[in-house]
Design brief:
UDP-n-acetylglucosamine1-carboxyvinyl-transferase, Chain; alpha+beta; 30% helix; binds ligand EPZ; single chain; four-stranded mixed beta sheet; 14 helices
Amino acid sequence: MTTPLHETTLASKPSGDVLAIRGGRPLHGRVDVKGAKNLATKAMVATLLGETASTLRDVPDLSDVAVVRSLLEVHGVRVTEGDEPGALIFDPSEVESAHFEEIDAHAGASRIPILFCGPLLHRLGQAFIPDLGGCRIGDRPIDFHLDALRKFGATVEKLPSGIRLSTGGSRLHGANIHLPYPSVGATEQVLLTAVRAEGTTELRNAAIEPEIMDLIAVLQKMGAIISYEPNRVILIEGVEKLRGYDHRSIFDRNEAASWASAALATDGEIFVGGAKQQEMLTFLNVFRKAGGWFDVREDGILFRRDGELKPVIVETDVHPGFMTDWQQPLVVALTQARGRSVVHETVYENRMGFTGALIKMGADIVVHPHGLQDGPRRVARRDLEQAAVITGPTPLHGADIVVPDLRGGYSHVIAALTATGESRVSGVDILSRGYEKFLDKLTALGADFDVIG
Ligand code: EPZ
């Protein structure tokens, strides 16, 4: 088996899970973002649907990508390097069913294995998905996924070790599916299953994030017929066969927004190569209102402060709203804004845990576990809101902190870089799930830190 991409990177520099960070120094310089984690991993799963090999370009060097690559290889997909750095070729011509032990060993902490269901059902008539991991940001159920798969005609058996699915020997058929919430993963599940099901699928209340639109573009290149109708409706006409694709991934707007907030928090200046305006419109508006300055250029976006930081009121939401993945690094910057900011989290039920470490470092943040207001929402609301009220500016001081999840962990590192004195940040390894060459990028931006564990 070939070495997963991220292992080659880890071997070339000191590995370690604990950083000693000396803060108070603004971050200055350039970082480049590659393909989006949340597209690349899904486009990799889509390669299972093709009869011929696919090429994905700008694949980020992340542990989540390595997990999906291993799982594809366990199922018989041959993965080789492409004709340019960051390009991978996936040849699915010898796909076979894998043993449970192997799948379990390769699934890691990622939730993406759930998306293997549809493609494996089409290819092999069965699939086994181990217990799913992912970031610790609430229960993260998969009921929408399983309900949709049942509607396509799959039988779903829940076992203590995972979920076994089968087509019972028949081809999956198109379905009418109305998602209770525009879930990104469930929309991808439906797309990856409907494209080869018999007949038409109508998906209502679909997620329409740019990464989903890029996945639709990938599937269209493979021969799928998918139309995007008004009001979150997606129509998919199933086809019998699909071929491989050649596609360059959309850029990682979550990583781009993270570095933008890092420039804001540390009072630095960061050029994010590869960042584009269209997919970040909502973020850029909030960034500007919070006292940020940006310049959109041909090859990326330059971010810095525009004078004193200002408080903002933000509500996370499905696209085109303010993404849940954008709020954590922004909260660090808001601790330095003069006045009271409010961040409502409406997508996940437990995504404010990271604020505990910021409070320990001197931030004035009060988390309201049931939200603050009951006004109208873009989509039907579930009872899981939380709100953080951040009052600033408060100087941050160094502390010993433990990274809770991917975006929360990034915010901890940025808080440590904003703080005076030294911080010890543990659990940093989790950042390799979503930030390519993270420590190299920090070094390039002039961060003062040592890997100590
Ligand atoms: C994707 O997660 C991303 N992950 C997340 O990125 C991102 O935060 C999220 O979309 C929202 O944009 C990947 O793409 C791998 P959802 P996903 O299904 O698909 C509930 C990051 O840091 N729900 O849209 O799992 C769920 O609990 C990560 O990069 C159900 O109730 O998100 C949540 O409250 C973290 N039942 C809401 O819907 C289901 O069956 C949105 O989840 C599925 C979801």
